[in-house]
Design brief:
Layout (H helix, E strand, L loop, with lengths): L3 E4 L2 E4 L1 E2 L1 H18 L5 E5 L5 E5 L1 E5 L3 E7 L13 E9 L4 E5 L2 E2 L1 E2 L15 H17 L5 E7 L3 H4 L5 H4 L1 E2 L1 E2 L7 E2 L4 H17 L4 E5 L2 H9 L8 E3 L4 H10 L4 E7 H4 L17 H11 L4 H8 L4 H10 L3 H20 L4 E8 L3 E5 L3 H10 L1
Parallel strand pairs: 9-12, 10-14, 16-17, 16-18, 18-19
Antiparallel strand pairs: 1-2, 3-15, 4-5, 6-7, 7-8, 8-12, 11-13, 19-20
Helix pairs in contact: 1-2, 5-7, 9-10, 9-12
């Protein structure tokens, strides 16, 4: 596979996710199991509609099970899982349907609020869908009416997981199988910040005075559905919130509005203007401190500190009737720090949401900035 993108004037090679690896390995194993034919390559169409042709590794064919692997390729993205073999073992079942389970090196969810429920293998929902749809395709192709069981495993994942944030998030014993598009786009910091700067410069040259910024796809979805604004109006800034605000100020924007998931933007209240997890994770500390100031009982504060995801923390706030008060304190704190970063000549605001709880709160200037963006 040779898919490239241009960022900051550089041509960077894309890779593919652990989710794509798992789906491709399962598809290849299912084909060999049901057809009786050995194959050395497998085709996979990703959710982003990119068609991959991947070599099949470590093939092991038995009468009732076929096992094989796909090697993870992260392209030019510095990813700890690059070169990792993601294995799939597929076997027939009497009952119809597709059963997906995780084996050695695949983590188990131990805290609420993540993509999968407590106790489940950390194979996220999009990779699960990819596995299921590709196996259903093989079943139709070979006219197989029975069921299939899939075991995804990656023995090296046990060691690699200790170098990630998985243990802190409540994913124990291995890695997560991830990916929403199936494709890994390189995250070169210089390339990304150059791209953000170029896009903001172009928009300013076209006469825009107010910038709409969002970290990623969740924000684009909320802008489309929750704010009823064309998401093409937004500039995606990834984790580089501070760099984007600096660029807006340097380009002479009158204002900038950040629209993002609370899991990202809560970090701004801790002064983290690069929100990547490698620089720290203060989400629960900040939320718990603000909630405690609003009267959250100590036992529930301890429970919140142990949460793996903001949606789970929001569950506690909802049960205690403290969402509104906590969000008011949180957004006021974000507002003060945004003002310091934006400077005197530019207004900055933020609007926070959750996929489960919808719009949560906004800073003092957010509504006015949103109206300016809609008018512009």
């Amino acid at each position: 596979m040779e898919i490239t993108i241009e960022k900051g004037g550089r041509r960077l090679r894309c890779g593919y996710t652990t989710g794509s690896c798992a789906a491709a390995a399962a598809k290849a194993a299912a084909f060999m199991l049901l057809s009786g034919r050995r194959i050395e390559r497998i085709f996979l169409q990703t959710p982003k509609r990119v068609r991959l042709t991947l070599p099949v590794r470590e093939i092991e064919i038995k009468e009732d099970t076929v096992c094989c692997a796909i090697e993870k390729d992260s392209g030019d993205d510095p990813d700890i899982t690059n070169g990792l073999y993601i294995h799939a073992a597929v076997s027939r079942t009497k009952a119809p349907g597709i059963i997906i389970e995780g084996g050695a090196g695949i983590g188990r969810v131990t805290k609420r609020g993540l993509d999968q429920p407590v106790g489940a293998a950390a194979i996220n929902s999009v990779p699960r869908r990819m596995i299921r749809e590709n196996l259903e395709e093989i079943c139709r192709l070979l006219d197989y009416r029975g069921g299939l069981q899939v075991l995804i495993f990656a023995p090296q994942g046990i060691t690699l997981a200790e170098k990630t944030f998985n243990p802190r998030l409540g994913i124990k014993g291995g890695l997560s199988i991830l990916g929403t598009t199936g494709i890994v786009e390189p995250m070169s910091e210089k390339a990304l910040t150059d791209t953000i700067a170029t896009e903001l410069r172009q928009r300013r040259a076209l006469g825009e005075s107010y910038a709409l910024l969002t970290p990623g796809n969740y924000g684009l979805d909320f802008i489309r559905g929750g704010l009823v604004i064309d998401p093409d109006r937004a500039v995606m800034v990834s984790n580089f919130v501070g760099d984007a605000l600096d660029c807006c100020r340097e380009q002479g924007f009158s204002g900038a509005l950040l629209v993002g998931h609370i899991g990202k933007l809560v970090k701004l209240a801790g002064g983290m203007f690069n929100t990547h997890s490698q620089y720290g994770d203060c989400r629960m500390d900040i939320l718990t401190a603000e909630a405690a100031a609003c009267g959250l009982p100590s036992a529930r504060a301890a429970e919140m500190l142990a949460c793996a995801a903001c949606d789970d923390a929001l569950r506690i706030l909802t049960e205690e009737g403290l969402v509104k008060q906590t969000m008011q304190r949180l957004t006021a704190r974000i507002d003060r720090l945004l003002a310091l970063r934006a400077g005197e000549r530019m207004q900055a605001g933020a609007l926070l949401f959750s996929k489960s709880y919808g719009a949560l709160g906004k800073t003092a200037h957010a509504a006015a900035l949103l109206q300016k963006i809609k008018e512009g």
